[in-house]
Amino acid sequence: MVKAPHAIHPGAGGQRRPDVMSRGEPLPAYVVSARRTALGRVGGLHRSRRIEDLTAPLVTAVLADAKVAADDVDELILGNTTAGGNPARLVALSAGLPERVAAMTVDRQCGSGLDAILLAIRHVAAGESEVVVAGGAESVSTAPWRIAKPKSLYQLPHFMAAETAAPEGMDPGQPFESAEHLAKKLGIGRSRQDAWVLKSHARAAKAREDRRFVGEILPLRANAEEARDQSAIDPSADEIERQRPYVPPKGTLTPGNTTAPHDGAALVLVVSERVWISLSRPPALRLLASAVAGVGADEEAAAPLVAMKKLHGRLNGFDRSTIRTIEVGETSAAQAIAFAEGLDLDPDQLNRAGGAVVRGHPLGAAGAVLAVRVFTELCRNPNGHPPFGAVAQGTIGGLGIAALFEAVGTPTAK
What we know:
Elements: E1 29-36, E2 40-41, H1 51-66, E3 75-79, H2 87-94, E4 102-106, H3 112-125, E5 131-138, E6 147-148, E7 158-159, H4 175-186, H5 190-209, H6 237-241, E8 262-272, H7 273-278, E9 284-294, H8 303-312, E10 323-329, H9 333-342, H10 356-359, H11 366-380, E11 388-395, E12 399-408
Parallel strand pairs: 3-4, 3-5, 10-11
Antiparallel strand pairs: 1-8, 2-8, 5-8, 6-7, 9-12, 11-12
């Protein structure tokens, strides 16, 4: 049986935890393992992999990492935007989970994977489940095409975009147009954006050299290209500078300082306190607070910043300077710079191993990738630093999601 609810206790160093869940006194929930695939360009690394082929191996991996049996899983919650139907059920069965395991697909566009993880934590916190696999998956390369029905017999059908940004009749623009507006508003020029991208690539290269993705990325085949993100190609400054702007002649956003849709999947395993204790309290993440915020569709590039500010407003008595690492799912360098400056962050806190402008943007899996990255930074590579990490993900249409985690448990011997 699951233990009765108990109060939230002070965190590491005697610091008070955010007083954001006192009304219901939820049960503790722990993220005990986290994995992702390498991210591949559309038509690239994962071009022939259906969503279940891409994701089922991760289910097996997160269970094996935590030494939890498939028979113990209560539910699988999956974020996805392109497959249609309920691909979570297909993934669960393809992974060999028992037929009794519930499965649910979540679609909040690019925030879907992070939403799935937060839902899993809430299910465990409510005592409804004890073991939940959660995250996001996107196989854009094999996703079905969406075709709009003609309004009359005399019109031809037309293909629809993978993501719907706004209701019919409203001009949604493109993500880069919102980021271009943000860059202009804040005076973030082309040279600063290009410099950010080059530094992000350098961080990713350093992380690979230091083998910081080992244990995070699950190669689906035994070869080198399956162990690294396909778009992490270490471009030169000249290559970045030669890119033409999306909005000529004075636009600042280019293919070199923005991200593009990618295939990929990322999953975590969430368990109850009873299960965590039975596993000998391994290193794990525990959710301290989360927030969701909306902005106008034409301001969507600012949504992660707005969500993080809302999260900060809920951290009563918490010293935000102790947050060691922040992962933001930026769609452009301009968005990342605006996020850092809007929160007065040390740039070294943000996307410590490179961001989405380096690895690519796997749509519904994007937010789950951020959670996996924080697990790596805080649980796989703790290094004695403060045990707090945050994630922030924007979605097309003007929504932002943010969450703060604490690392707990017994550090793994290196």
